[in-house]
Write a structure and sequence with these properties.
With 355 residues, this protein is mainly α. The chain contains 14 helices and no strands. The protein has one domain (2-175, 270-353).
């Protein structure tokens, strides 16, 4: 249990880059370094978490904890991954309300982002090898990759991949800055619980929900939402920690606690209640076929996200150099702790920023 908690605390501290990066780091730790599971088992967990609402990478931390240490592992691994981001975001939200601006971390992010892209690429290639086990799955993966780059919603891509595999399976058998606004804590909790319970996909989809619930109702300004997004992206851990920032703006520390607990609670409940159900379904030939399609689409989505992030992150010779070095390290020194890659990228980014 101590090893499980320390692992996800570390990932919660160094986990910059969003869900794709988090999942890549988790694979490096639990598959490559600790050998708790195989790539095939890890892919199965990715598929399961993509089929239920909520923050994907947070749900991955929760379900890995459950597989290792049952319900206690579920609780503590999830909290260990979430808490560092929430604490950092809370501190930034206090400074924001007091001083009206955010501290600059651009020099460090300059190096962290390309290092994260290298980690994602190092994870995608072996996962693709494990998931694209037939020509049909390769076609599904390529199609999902293209559709993702075109902006098609990821739940449609994954469901489509799974349903296509089922259709082919049966066909083969000849069958068919505001001053702390006043919003009741109960209502605040319900809003964020609802978001956590119905939001499919990555944390990036969260921001559209936040705009509808809070900007369109004049509870916060567009600028405050933009600042909340910035905090979520410049802090480690799940992007959903942005809600801590918004909760504090609306109702101080109580709002921060209520918003955070509300948005993350459904993820714990879904994993606790549905993991056993998915395990029972795994004996079904039809469900396994569906899951293979979902897995292929999921890997393609991770690859698509990595490319999109790379285009935005690798913009000059400094970031390109950091990316190449980080990629070489991840491929030739597979046992290197991802923390060293992230911290090394941050340090290199700061030095090159001064050049």
């Amino acid at each position: 249990m101590k090893e499980l908690i320390s692992l996800f605390l570390k990932l919660g501290v160094i986990g910059f880059g969003g869900p794709a990066a988090h999942i890549a780091m988790m694979r490096q730790e639990v598959v490559i370094r600790k050998k708790w599971m195989t790539d095939e088992e890890f892919l199965h967990l990715i598929a399961v978490t993509n089929l239920i609402p909520g923050p994907n990478s947070t749900e991955m931390s929760i379900i890995i904890g459950k597989k290792q240490r049952g319900l206690k592992g579920l609780l503590f691994s999830g909290l260990a991954f979430i808490v560092p981001a929430v604490i950092i975001t809370y501190i930034l939200s206090v400074l924001y309300v007091r001083y009206g601006s955010l501290p600059s971390v651009q020099p460090f992010l300059l190096g962290i982002k390309p290092a994260i892209i290298a980690i994602i690429i190092s994870a995608v290639l072996p996962l693709a090898k494990s998931s694209f086990k037939s020509p049909v799955l390769i076609i599904i993966g390529i199609t999902a990759f293209i559709l993702s780059l075109l902006g098609v919603h990821e739940i449609l891509i994954m469901a489509g991949g799974g349903l296509l595999m089922i259709m082919l399976h049966f066909a083969g058998k000849n069958n068919i800055l505001l001053s702390l606004a006043v919003l009741p804590l109960s209502k605040l909790f319900f809003i964020f619980f609802k978001i956590g319970a119905i939001l499919y996909g990555s944390g990036y989809v969260l921001f559209a929900f936040l705009e509808t619930e809070f900007v369109d109702t004049n509870l916060i300004t567009s600028q405050q939402l933009a600042d909340a997004i910035a905090v979520g992206q410049m802090t480690p851990g799940p992007l959903f920690s942005s809600v801590t920032f918004i909760g504090y703006i609306l109702n101080g520390w109580q709002g921060a606690v209520v918003a955070t607990s509300g948005v993350f609670l459904p993820a714990f409940l879904f994993i606790a209640l549905l993991d056993r159900l998915f395990t029972r379904f795994s004996t079904s030939d039809v469900f396994r076929t569906f899951l293979n399609g979902v897995i292929a689409a999921s890997v393609a989505l991770i690859a698509s996200t990595g490319i999109t992030l790379g285009i935005n992150a690798i913009t000059n010779w400094q970031t390109a150099l950091i990316f190449i070095i980080a990629l070489a390290v991840t491929f030739y020194f597979k046992s290197v702790n991802s923390a060293f890659i992230v911290v090394g990228g941050a340090f290199a980014g700061y030095l090159l920023y001064l050049v």
